[in-house]
Specification:
This protein is α/β, with parallel strands linked by helices. Helices cover 42% and strands 15% of the residues.
């Protein structure tokens, strides 16, 4: 014979709002006890039994049931016990929020193991009861799952409703900072307590209170509402929503409800008018479950005829199949008669689901956990009999408190193949199923598993959800809902927080010029790397174009053609002068100076090629120095020519001593000395701070400019200033000598040429300083070409004209005649 031991399970709300789905909890309990009692390998001398008490979701009835549990049968005498059988071993319970502190504390005084298959933050987070075992993961785990869900769908602006003020306070202290770290803030934080307190007042006050509560919740801007509550909270919420908007022409905007464990939709037989449409598309976290072998057959085999010991089956049968048993009919019966042969599998899913719920699965595991612990304790007692000096410890003397040592270390695989073990906090391995609720106009509904949260899995596999399987509320037209305080800041803009509002509410302001933001809702813009630049929309960094004055581009080609053309013209002029070497016009004004000037101008035109093309080390070294030296030679040649004209005129005057200065030696000395001083400046430049190739990434926003860094701007200005000084001296001397009588007086031509020269280089300075990149080089080349062309054209073109077109003027007689 087996000795009896009993479990106690709480059955919720069987009379107030008949929930047929809860009958599955009873069947799971009965199935587990039946399996254990039939297993000869487990508890061979013990028969498990159970008693079920209904709390009616009422504190009064719950306390009454608690007193009955610790009293003898049929007597309300707490602490009095006289039976040797029907030992109380454990309590399996689901507590509503209002009782989540008191009842566990009461049973902990007796050290009775308590298995909680529901979810209440107050008991799971704020108490440290050593007699308490949680078949549901704690609140931290559940909110971590909710946080992952919100983060996955990018819902940043949500509302929260907690079952009571204690839960709300716990959330704000413990969980809210984690949500803030992930960028989620709350449009509303409300406690359901105020609404529940109004329940005991008259109906008018309650409806007013309910309307104000729903107005704050349903009319907030957030499209997503998180509701942390329990079975009672869900009943009151459905009642309020159905009553307030029963006759409303236009219902409030639809929301995405995220419901915590215990707030599943249930079919209330006595409340068929309660609309479930508000919860269409809701997402809820449910305790993980798995199909148990044999349970479905066990459920299908149930009927009122064969299960005489089931005190609930007739009530369940009558409610589920809308029929009446004959033995309960007094007088004339109306309606359907229950035959007892109706099939449970024919019931709609929302009335009695065949799929095992998380609560039923937890109850089943709780029974087995207690049985394994009891078996371990019984085995330990049997092995130690020889050490007890003959003392025989009877099984019925084993106390419930002795189970704790074995429960703390219990570990087993259930019949579904899943491991059940308690951690150091006496909690099972945290797992959740994510359920999507789909409702229909006939008030039926189905639950669709769309995801999971497994905290034992690797971090990248812990959260999984199938978006394609989710059905959203009709308000959103099957598009994934958005829930943000304001529209996202698009790339190219950054967030600017609004004063006095949560951080999720912000304005969007454009990024500063040259800065970008390449993602939505960026807090700050950032600058592109030096080799990239911001596009027009300021949302992308584009590679800068490498630029320099090249031979392939039109500007480079044009300048090259001009330089070649002027070089060719100059070379032809040199050839022409050499061909007419002995003619008077060539000999006039120092023939050697003319050759020196023409040669200098030829090199001036050719030195422009040092400025075109990709800058290299050699070209950078020679660019400005070669230009400065050859131009100095040209200008000093012009100066020597001018001085020669003046001295030649002065030598013709009677008694003049200037004759001894007239000749090649003075002219050559001027050219050599002036050019040598410029060459010395250039040598100092090259020796101390030589120019080098450089990359300029900042002058132009969209370009990387390859150029030459002059290294020492002081020496560059010295070269240019010296050359300008010579030009001004030449211009001055030529200006005063322009009216001297002479047949081939070059002073007028030199005056005009130096006027052009000075005008070009005076305009060069502001133009050069106001341009960037390759255009600075182009301006300098243009100045070189135009000033050189001015000298060439003004001084030598008239002579070539006479040589080639008017040879009659190029003779000694004409020269003497004009001179007289």
């Amino acid at each position: 014979m087996k000795t009896g031991s009993s479990l106690v399970a709480s059955k919720h709300n069987w009379l107030l709002c008949v929930v047929l789905e809860n009958y599955q909890h009873i069947l799971a309990l009965a199935f587990a006890v039946k399996e254990i009692n039939k297993n000869p390998q487990m508890l061979p001398n013990i028969t498990l039994g159970f008693k079920i008490y209904d709390s009616y979701l009422s504190a009064t009835w719950t306390y009454h049931a608690a007193m009955q549990i610790i009293s003898p049968n049929n007597k309300l005498l707490p602490n009095y016990k006289c039976e040797i059988q029907d030992n109380l071993l454990a309590i399996i319970e689901e507590l509503i929020a209002d009782l989540s502190q008191q009842i566990p504390t009461l049973f902990s005084i007796y050290k009775i193991p308590q298995f909680m298959h529901g979810f209440a933050i107050a008991i799971t987070e704020n108490t440290k009861l050593h007699s308490f075992y949680k078949m549901a993961p704690n609140g931290f785990h559940q909110y971590r799952g909710i946080l992952e869900l919100l983060h996955h769908f990018k819902w940043r602006w949500v509302g929260l409703v907690a079952a009571n003020g204690e839960n709300l306070q716990w959330f704000m202290q413990s969980i809210l900072p984690e949500f803030s770290k992930r960028g989620i803030c709350f449009a509303v934080l409300e406690s359901f307590t105020s609404l529940c307190l109004c329940y005991d007042v008259d109906k008018g006050s309650f409806m007013k209170c309910a309307f104000e509560f729903c107005d704050r919740i349903l009319n907030c801007k957030a499209n997503v509402l998180v509701f942390n509550g329990d079975t009672l909270s869900m009943i009151i919420l459905r009642y309020v929503l159905s009553t307030l908007f029963e006759d409303a022409i236009q219902k409030p905007k639809g929301k995405v409800w995220i419901l915590t464990v215990g707030m599943e939709l249930k079919s209330f037989v006595s409340r068929k008018s309660w609309d479930v449409g508000d919860f269409h598309g809701a997402l809820s976290f449910a305790l993980h479950s798995n199909e148990l072998p044999g349970l479905r057959q066990f459920i299908h085999s149930r009927n009122p005829s064969s299960d005489k010991g089931d005190g609930f089956i007739k009530d369940f049968w009558a409610q589920a199949f809308h029929c009446t048993f004959q033995d309960s009919v007094l007088g004339n019966a109306s309606g359907n008669i229950c035959t007892g042969e109706e099939k449970l599998e024919k019931l709609p899913e929302h009335v009695f689901p065949m799929t095992l719920s998380g609560h039923s699965y937890s109850i089943y595991n709780a029974v087995y956990a207690m049985a394994h612990a009891l078996h371990a304790m019984h085995s330990s007692t049997s092995k130690s009999k020889s050490m007890m000096k003959g003392e025989r410890r009877k099984t019925h003397n084993q106390q419930a408190w002795q189970l704790h040592h074995f429960l703390n270390s219990v570990s087993f695989n259930n019949t579904a193949g899943e491991k059940v073990v308690f951690d150091q906090n006496r909690e099972v391995v945290p797992k959740f199923d994510i359920i999507n609720w789909v409702t229909y106009p006939n008030q039926s509904f189905i639950r669709v598993k769309v995801g999971k949260m497994d905290f034992q899995a690797p971090s990248d596999e812990a959260f999984a959800i199938n978006e394609d399987a989710i059905v959203w509320h009709n308000w959103f037209n099957q598009a994934q809902p958005l829930s943000v305080c304001n529209d996202n800041c698009q790339p190219g803009y950054r967030k600017n927080r609004k004063e006095g509002e949560p951080f999720c509410c912000y304005d969007c302001i454009p990024c500063p010029k040259g800065w970008i933001s390449n993602k939505k809702d960026m807090a700050e813009c950032f600058k592109c790397p030096d080799d990239l630049y911001a596009n027009k929309d300021q949302n992308l960094c584009i590679p800068k174009v490498i630029t320099f004055l090249s031979y392939e581009e039109p500007l480079g080609i044009s300048l090259t053609i001009c330089a070649l053309s002027f070089s060719l013209i100059t070379a032809l002029m040199i050839r022409t002068f050499m061909k007419h070497h002995e003619t008077p016009i060539v000999k006039a004004n120092n023939r050697d100076l003319s050759y020196a000037l023409l040669t200098s101008l030829l090199f001036c035109f050719l030195c422009t090629f040092l400025f075109i093309g990709r800058p290299e080390k050699l070209t950078c070294l020679l660019r400005q120095t070669a230009f400065g030296i050859v131009f100095t030679m040209a200008v000093s040649s012009v100066l020597a020519k001018t001085i020669t004209v003046v001295l030649a005129f002065m030598a013709t005057q009677p008694g003049s001593r200037s004759k001894k200065w007239v000749g090649k030696r003075l002219a050559s000395s001027i050219v050599v000395s002036c050019s040598s001083l410029q060459a010395a400046i250039c040598l100092v430049w090259l020796a101390t701070s030589p120019p080098f190739p450089d990359i300029d990434m900042h002058s132009q926003a969209e370009e990387i400019i390859l150029g030459c860094n002059e290294s020492s701007m002081i020496l560059l200005y010295c070269v240019l200033s010296y050359m300008g000084l010579l030009a001004i001296a030449s211009f001055t001397v030529a200006f005063f000598a322009r009216k001297l009588p002479d047949s081939f007086n070059e002073a007028k031509c030199i005056t005009f040429s130096m006027l052009v020269f000075c005008s070009v280089w005076l305009s060069f300075v502001p133009s050069y300083l106001s341009t960037k990149g390759k255009y600075m080089v182009a301006v300098e080349i243009f100045s070189i070409l135009s000033s050189s062309a001015g000298l060439l054209g003004c001084i030598f073109v008239p002579k070539c004209y006479i040589i080639l077109l008017r040879p009659d003027l190029n003779n000694k007689e004409q020269f003497l005649r004009r001179k007289q």
